[in-house]
Amino acid sequence: MPSSMVPNDQSEMPTGDGPERRIDDLIDYAGAAEYARSLDTIMSSDGFRSPNAPIPLRPVLMEQNRYESMVRTARQAMRIIKDVTRARGANYRELARAVDFEYPRVSLWSDSPLQNRWALAMARPDIGVVDGVPKVFEVNVNSALGGLTQLPRLDAAFLGRADLRRAWREHPVSTDSVASALSRLLRAVGDSVGRPVPQVGIVGFRHDEDKGGSEETYLGLLDGLRTHGVPAVYVPAQDVRVRNGKAYAGRTRLDVLLRMFVTADAPAAGIDIEPLRRVIAEDAAVVLSPEAAGPLASKRVLAWITEDAEHMCAADRAFVRRHIPETHIVEAPGTLGPDARSVRERLRREQHDLLLKGNQGHSAHTVTVGRECAEAEWLSRVDEALLSRGCVVQRRVETDLLEIPVYSETHGRVLRPASRVVYGPLLIGERCGGIMSRHSDAGLGDVVSGITGGVANTTFRWSAS
Questions:
Q1: Which of these, 445, 399, 368, lies nearest to 136 by C-alpha position?
Q2: pLDDT mean over 21-32
Q3: What is the pLDDT of residue 9?
Q4: Residue 161: phi, psi to the nearest 5?
Q5: pLDDT greater than 80 at residue 213
Q6: If you write DSSP's letter for every residue of 382-433 in order, what string do you get?
Q7: What are the residues facing 134 on neighbouring strands?
Q8: Where are the strands (E) in 116-261, listed by range?
Q9: Under a CB-based contact definition with an 8 Å cutoff, are residues 357 and 394 in contact?
Q10: SS3 at position 332
Q11: Beta pairing class for 200-204 and 232-236
């Protein structure tokens, strides 16, 4: 039997001295299939895993100091991103030109200060851990952040399961709250428009072939906001209306709208965003996050950080070298070489140590891992990048592997694969709303995403004291 697999039998699960193993010893593996089916049902409206991907039997666990260190790293990275982008653009239009931002075919862009004040209010850096050190691979700046809807349901499922409740008594855990962080941000936005207790609209979509934007997806988020004193309703994008300069859902006035989809994906998903565009054009409500946040998520920004590091203060320079993998824009002349031939040769020579990433994009659609493709394919992608002048290459790092117990429907048993993990601290206003984690069997490759065999999970902190 491969070492990464164990039968659905608690006695054969590996044991050790760490809290993860001690907690794993308390899991009821005889009920794993039932737990897995239950969690899959709970998460079914939100696509939290790839088809045939296994289902986690517990959250990812992180010692408290490391948890807090990861959140601090995420915040510091976002502060540096703000600094390097400000140096290249006095406003978001200038920044968009600097990163060759591709405006969505149906765009919600606005230059309104009322909207763009909140461009950095919501972000999720993607972080790997190398020898215990957090490394920021890229950032997501949007209100349609993966994790906002998944974490509340995952947290509740793992905190409430009978066998895990016994584990939490012996090994107390905690996590941050999406609803707590988000309600605080929404109140701050409300204050800025004279509405200390704002009426909030969670903006999804209604489409026969795509249920991901339906009200069911947002019930946990809606209930959490209401519990924290923020009146919130669900409204499909096409049902928003403007009357007398104010936004409405039916008869309910809306002060803040939380856009829960990526604008560029709207046409393919059948989302009519014309009503939302009118809201923004008339400043009838504040829409989070404004489309002007898009350029901040460009992979080119990470290359600017590499370029600017030597001119930063000593503390920031040390942070960049420790926490952000070396990243370069693929262009000639550029930081990789004086001409296209030398750049191409360098990338050919260093292929197995590099990742090629598109300037824009999400869900790993534009990532090519050098060591996972033939040289001819790699060079073809490099040639395309040299022509487009928009891609970046990033130094590959070997992330730490974790053994996370999962239930595999394919194998009909519990597995404990050595997994690659990508962490995503949800930075919401001044708070962290939790750390989303995504993991997949290391044998599936370097990229961890919902389209390459990965599964979304939550991260709990535990205290060693």
A1: 399
A2: 92
A3: 34
A4: -70, 140
A5: no
A6: HHHHHHH---EEEE---PPEEE--EEETTTTEEE--EEEEEEEEEEETTEEE
A7: 129
A8: 122-130, 133-141, 173-174, 200-204, 232-236, 240-243, 246-249, 252-254, 256-259
A9: yes
A10: coil
A11: parallel
Tell me the pLDDT band of 209, cut-offs 50, 70 and 90: low
Please check whether residue 284 is in contact with residue 278, taking contact to mean a CB–CB distance below 8 angstroms: yes
Task: Please give the structure tokens belonging to residue 32.
Answer: 């794993």
Structure confidence by residue, pLDDT tens digits, 378-404: 999 999 999 987 799 999 999 999 999
- In the DSSP assignment, the letter for residue 236 is E
**Residues 6 or more apart from 136 whose CB is under 8 A from it?**
73, 74, 77, 125, 126, 127, 302, 323, 324, 325
Tell the burial category of 366 from Cβ atoms under 10 Å away from its Cβ (0-12, 13-18, 19+). middle
For residues 258 and 202, is the Cβ–Cβ distance under 8 A?
A: yes
Q: Kindly report the length of the chain.
A: 465
Between the alpha carbon of residue 117 and those of residues 41, 120, 464, the distances in Å are 38, 8, 40
Reported as type and span, the H/E element at residue 64 is helix 64-86
Give the C-alpha separation, 378 to 396, whole Å: 15
Q: Are 50 and 451 in contact (CB under 8 A)?
A: yes
First-to-last C-alpha distance (Å) of the chain: 38
Contact assessment for residue 346 and residue 368, using Cβ atoms and an 8 Å cutoff:
no
Distances (CA, A) of 344 to 327, 328, 360: 16, 13, 21
Q: How do residues 434-460 score in pLDDT, each as one tens digit?
A: 999 999 999 998 988 767 779 999 999
Question: pTM (2 decimals)?
Answer: 0.92
Q: What is the mean pLDDT of residues 29-53?
A: 92
